[in-house]
Specification:
Layout: H1 2-9, H2 15-26, H3 30-44, H4 46-70, H5 97-113, H6 116-135, H7 141-168, H8 172-183, H9 191-214, H10 222-246, H11 251-277
Helix pairs in contact: 2-6, 3-4, 3-10, 3-11, 4-5, 4-7, 4-9, 5-6, 5-7, 6-7, 8-9, 9-11, 10-11
């Protein structure tokens, strides 16, 4: 039945839809989320940036762990199903990482903004993401459905945990959530798991340092906001590419590179922005 659903969806294939759904699926990949997180955290709402980052990173780790636990095959190679952009199909099939990530991102935005337009945009984006993974022949419907359900449940849990931590000032609670993921590095020895765990640990340490020593204020002129983005993303790209060249090729190097990414976004860049660019007083 699931194969027939995919075949039905793929009955409308055309060069236009191929290009369109590949663009859609790209919004569920690493660089989209890094750019979105940077814009939100550096220029729009720091607290929401923290909350979104925590939800998105931990949701991704949960997704990778579930993939390894269930270890289901993808529809790639199944007779009658065409699969394209296969390079985005990393690891087992269930649950869909692109769909879960997109749902986590947009549900977080919906909870934060609570306006009609974000409901429409968010729900449409989640539906399109899930549909794109079926159209591209990279997931079964159950993978997409599972990704959305997990995202909904975890986003609300994650938001509650973060809000409770903020209200009670018990920052150690976040580390209590991260610790099992760190221990998971013993069992899930793959690049994607190590990169995300590295990012979330850098994110957590950066959160502590920024909250205590930097106290970054996002408010600024549009020109200076643009300068922050260009400088911040530029340095981030330099960090990633340089470390990739000089560090040995292994999962521990991946962990370190993305640990620095987490630190740069949460405390490195904000420190330099406060020191050299400043902010507009209320």
């Amino acid at each position: 039945m699931q194969i027939e659903i995919i075949k039905s969806i793929q009955s409308m294939v055309s060069p236009f839809w191929d290009a369109f759904f590949q663009i859609v699926t790209m919004t569920g990949e690493e660089y989209f989320y890094i750019l979105a997180a940077a814009i939100i955290f550096w220029c729009i709402n720091k607290k929401f940036g923290y909350k979104l980052g925590f939800a998105l990173l931990t949701s991704t780790i949960i997704n990778i762990a579930f993939k390894d636990i269930f270890n289901t095959s993808r529809p790639i190679g199944v007779p009658g199903i065409r699969s394209i952009r296969i390079e985005t199909a990393t690891g087992p099939s269930f649950p869909s990482g692109h769909t879960q990530g997109s749902a986590t991102f947009w549900i977080s935005c919906i909870i934060q903004v609570r306006k009609r337009w974000i409901y429409i945009v968010g729900i449409l984006a989640i539906i399109l993401m899930g549909y794109s993974r079926l159209y591209l022949g990279l997931h079964y419907p159950i993978d997409v459905f599972g990704g959305i359900v997990i995202a909904i449940i975890w986003t609300f849990i994650s938001n509650y945990i973060f809000e409770y931590t903020q209200e009670t000032k018990r920052i150690w609670i976040l580390f209590a959530i991260i610790l099992p993921f760190l221990i998971g590095m013993i069992y899930f020895r793959e690049k994607s798991y190590y990169t995300i765990v590295g990012t979330v640990l850098g994110f957590y340490i950066g959160y502590i340092l920024e909250s205590k020593y930097v106290q970054y204020d996002v408010r600024n002129t549009r020109v200076k906001q643009l300068i922050k983005l260009v400088f911040g993303i530029g340095i981030l790209i330099i960090f990633k590419s340089t470390l990739k060249v000089i560090l040995p090729v292994n999962i521990f190097s991946d962990f370190l590179r993305y640990f620095i990414v987490g630190l740069w976004i949460t405390v490195g860049a904000p420190f330099l922005f406060e020191k050299f660019i400043g902010h507009i007083e209320a």
